[in-house]
């Protein structure tokens, strides 16, 4: 045990290899959260920290929801686990039915997973299997987008577009990428969807012409990219992508792991933008972050195209030990109840004008070169220090935590996505802390 762990009667920090973390830097000055309720985390030493990113974009209904906790606890005592291969339990069917009711019309067939990464790999595999079932097995190319984040499975990394997530790993040979849509030169300080960039969707025409459209199985995009630093789609972009996919028989997948469950002011981004994909991947908010769970929404036509062949044959050779976990389904049903009762799936639309005004009030603060927002998401992009990209962003993260706000930074971009239960005053409080930190960080 080192000195600090002795002093706080805390176990050594050595054994835990932390994900997406600078382990040595963190362990030399750890930030530990001990409890959470509503909009606030509490640190080990009792400080209240306002949650500026819903945990990791998942705790949409706020922390410590008793209904979810007791549903999970009771379920574990009633039926802790049930196999989901060639067996079933009622809650999985109930939860799928409830999710189908929320989904955009037609996307009412639900496949359960345990995470966003699993949802993405599931959707990509469904796309390949769907084409094969229809006699188009030559459609094997999977198209993502630069700056996209689709989790960390090999499928998701292959279609993902963040270089640090890719460079150390093999990627699938059939994966290609559309160009990204970030265009600070033309779109800086846009409110909501930026004006310029619809033509970036035509990249799909380029890839279709290069490879042959009949070789492409699916295109996957985040309707609003999250991890890359909140990139709303240019006006008309998603519509154009939809039209091109339809023209070429390519499946369109919306990765709504972040945008699903109310983040943008409707249950799904597909409904906000009025663009219907063939598959939607979700996780995170599906259980309010309280249980590891994900769900893929498939269109009736994709699903039905696979319900062929002999009745005793499995239609899709895919699934997880924890697909449709009873406690996950209980958590999810309790979560949907809260969302419904408290109107949370549309609350972001009510909060968005105040949120937009608050975050854009940081325009003109030191080093701020762009501010982007949509629904209850926002990013504040800082210019990097010339010799140390990411250092300014990291300093802002640390100082914000010291000043009482949990925020996310990716490089020098601050990302905010507070719980959907936030009051306007709490949104002001959060942005106020970020603003005061920006004034202090050179
Ligand atoms: N797709 C999208 C769009 C995501 O944002 C995943 C897939 C993968 O989900 P899982 O459950 O496997 O992690 C995500 C996850 C961040 C951050 O702050 C974002 C995610 C996860 C952790 C941190 O940028 N998104």
Taken as a percent bin, the fraction of beta residues is 15-25%
Largest sheet: 7 strands, mixed
Helix run count? 17
Broad structural category: alpha/beta
Estimate percent helicity: 25-40%
Summarize the entry for a quick read.
This protein is of the alpha/beta class and 442 residues long. It has helices at 3-7, 23-28, 54-57, 66-78, 90-102, 116-133, 154-159, 163-166, 184-187, 203-211, 237-248, 269-273, 300-306, 326-341, 344-360, 391-403, 424-440, and strands spanning 33-37, 40-43, 48-51, 109-113, 141-145, 175-178, 216-221, 251-255, 279-282, 294-298, 368-374, 377-382, 405-406, 408-410, 413-416.
Give a structural overview.
The chain is an alpha/beta fold. The chain has two domains: 31-61 and 344-440, Aspartate Aminotransferase, domain 1, CATH 3.90.1150; 68-341, Aspartate Aminotransferase, domain 2. Helices cover 38% and strands 16% of the residues. It contains 17 helices and 15 strands. The strands form three sheets. A seven-stranded mixed β-sheet has the order 4-10-9-8-7-5-6, with helices on both faces. Helix 11 links the parallel strand 7 (216-221) and strand 8 (251-255). Helix 6 crosses helix 13. It is globular and about 65 Å long. The two termini are 36 Å apart. 3-[O-phosphonopyridoxyl]--amino-benzoic acid binds next to helix 3, helix 6 and strand 14.
């Amino acid at each position: 045990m080192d000195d600090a762990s002795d002093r706080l009667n805390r176990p050594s920090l050595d054994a835990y290899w932390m994900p997406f973390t600078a382990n040595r830097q963190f362990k030399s000055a750890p930030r530990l959260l001990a409890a959470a309720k509503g909009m606030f985390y509490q640190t080990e030493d009792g400080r209240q920290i306002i949650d500026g990113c819903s945990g990791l974009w998942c705790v949409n209904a706020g922390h410590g929801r008793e209904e979810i906790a007791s549903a999970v606890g009771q379920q574990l005592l009633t039926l802790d686990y049930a196999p989901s291969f060639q067996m079933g339990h009622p809650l999985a069917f109930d939860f799928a039915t409830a999710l189908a009711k929320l989904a955009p019309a037609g996307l009412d067939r639900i496949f359960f997973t345990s995470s966003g990464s699993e949802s993405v790999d599931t959707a990509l595999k469904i796309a390949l299997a769907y084409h094969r079932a229809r006699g188009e097995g030559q459609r094997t190319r999977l198209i993502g987008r630069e700056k996209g984040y689709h989790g960390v499975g090999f499928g998701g990394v292959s279609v993902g577009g963040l270089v640090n997530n890719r460079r150390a790993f093999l990627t699938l040979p059939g994966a290609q990428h559309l160009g990204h849509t970030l265009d600070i030169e033309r779109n800086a300080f846009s409110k909501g969807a930026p004006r310029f960039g619809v033509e970036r969707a035509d990249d799909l025409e380029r890839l279709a012409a290069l490879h042959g459209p009949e070789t492409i199985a699916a295109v996957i995009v985040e309707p609003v990219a999250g991890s890359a630093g909140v990139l709303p789609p240019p006006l008309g972009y998603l519509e154009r992508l939809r039209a091109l996919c339809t023209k070429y028989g390519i499946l369109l997948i919306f990765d709504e792991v972040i945008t699903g469950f109310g983040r943008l002011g409707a249950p799904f981004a597909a409904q906000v933008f009025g663009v219907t994909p063939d598959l939607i991947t979700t996780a995170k908010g599906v259980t309010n972050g309280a249980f590891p769970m994900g769900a893929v929404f498939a269109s009736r036509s994709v699903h039905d195209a696979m319900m062929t062949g002999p009745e005793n044959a499995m239609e899709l050779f895919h699934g997880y030990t924890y697909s449709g976990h009873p406690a996950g389904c209980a958590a999810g049903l309790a979560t949907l109840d809260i969302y419904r009762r408290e109107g949370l799936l549309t609350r972001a639309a009510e909060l968005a004008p105040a949120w937009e005004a608050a975050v854009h009030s940081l325009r003109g603060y030191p080093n701020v070169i762009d501010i982007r927002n949509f629904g209850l998401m926002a990013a504040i992009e800082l210019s990097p220090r010339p010799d140390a990209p990411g250092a300014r962003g990291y300093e802002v993260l640390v100082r914000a935590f010291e000043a009482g706000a949990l925020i996310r930074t990716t490089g020098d971009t601050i990302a905010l996505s507070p719980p959907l239960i936030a009051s306007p005053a709490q949104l002001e409080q959060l942005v106020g802390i970020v603003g005061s930190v920006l004034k202090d960080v050179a």
